[in-house]
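Exercise: predict the structure of this protein bound to adenosine-5'-diphosphate.
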Amino acid sequence: MPKTAPLRLSSPGVDRPPATLAGLLRAWLPGQRWFAGKDRPVADLDVLSTTELFPGCLHLLVRASHTGVPAPVGTPPPGDCYQLLLGVREYVSPRLARAYIGRVNEGPLAGLAVYDALQDPRSAELLLERLRHPGTTGPLHFEADPSVSVPAGLTPRLLGAEQSNSSLVYGDRFILKVFRRIQPGVNPDLELPGALAAQGCTRVPAPVAWFRTAEPRAATLGVLQPFLPDASDGWALALRALADDAEFTTQAHELGQATADVHLTLAAAFPSGSGTGNEHTATAMTERLEAAAHAVPALRPFAPGLRTAFGALVGRDTGPPAQRIHGDLHLGQVLRAGRDWFVIDFEGEPSKPLAERRSAQSPVRDIAGMLRSFDYAARQRRPWRPEWARRCREAFCAGYAARAGWDPRAQQALLRAYETDRAVYEVLYEARHRPDWLPVPMAAIERLAVRGG
Ligand SMILES: Nc1ncnc2c1ncn2[C@@H]1O[C@H](COP(=O)(O)OP(=O)(O)O)[C@@H](O)[C@H]1O
Ligand SMILES: O=P(O)(O)O[C@H]1O[C@H](CO)[C@@H](O[C@H]2O[C@H](CO)[C@@H](O)[C@H](O)[C@H]2O)[C@H](O)[C@H]1O
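Solution:
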């Protein structure tokens, strides 16, 4: 018998009632970190497409719907679409026990066990091989920058801290982000780094290969980029500085410069947006606040104070022009290698519709995101270090101003409105994904509502 005997993790007919593939996935999805609908039970799960990527590995697009209400004729059905790569075998090795999803008892896969193939190094290797050879598999298109050569045989590892998506690092040379929640259209995490690199901006790892689907609707599925092996993310660096009682103002100043560089290049790479005007922005922010307060009761007492931040924008059409932005900028989205800051993860706030994330918006949204992040970091330290955060915020704005030619601190009303909007988003995000963290944005909500900043 081999040393690691294959494990029949469940036997048909013995352990469970009949299990369809959709039924198994419906039970498995809500436990995944990247699953967006944690606050609502999954009513239905439809398999939208199945493609055999290579023997023993299926590529699936599934739609999880939360209402169970059929869509009106002629409209797309409600619900979120997710990308899954499933290993399908008769037996699953014990080393893949954590990836195990279940054994299918009905339908074409009856009798077979399915598991999350991204956790299987062999499948991860084959996925890279597929990307190294551009072409088509069913509705899936694999494409690559012909000027970059990706060597064969790089050892894969799945990043532990899965976030909104799943990322595989290959031999510390490349990182493949497999998008989990799929929306029709080009994903800005392919579009923006590609455009920035084409403009000669060195602040982003440029896409070297990617894959997309043509059906049921065209959408980006994954992007391979160079991996920065010696980089640390801004969040880890900020926490280290706090733990060492050290300042972070030099890094924050340089980060402000890097952010401005990226904004300036994005402004040059894309047609300038007309924007929607501050009044429209204020209305949208107020609507987001109402929706968040509906979902998170703790927000409700602060809603009147928060609304004043948005109301202050009305009749005040000032501020930098709208342009393409990062959309979800925080310390976890920036990497520092040596003295250089790199910006990653241009997807925008994952819960927003893709069209909104790809629209021109105020660069103040990104600045506010980063300012909030210094506050998040400072609140990880006991006792809380508000002065540390304040100095970082000042330094970041000064760095930004030195490059961009305008100073975010001169836009107090805009800054307060965007910070408030970001804190509201964070409350909703934490309530859904990390309830223990809720006090962090709630402290800012209280400050912004009661003291106005
Ligand atoms: N090019 C890169 N080089 C080094 N590490 C990276 C790179 N891109 C991403 N990472 C690491 O992977 C993590 C997840 O990447 P990210 O794009 O933020 O994914 P998600 O959309 O899942 O949040 C980052 O926090 C960072 O630590
Ligand atoms: O998964 P993403 O990185 O795209 O972003 C989402 O998750 C982030 C947490 O991982 C969340 O960021 C919030 O927590 C960070 C600390 O973990 C902090 O640096 C950010 O300022 C704070 O917003 C982000 O909001 C969410 O979109």
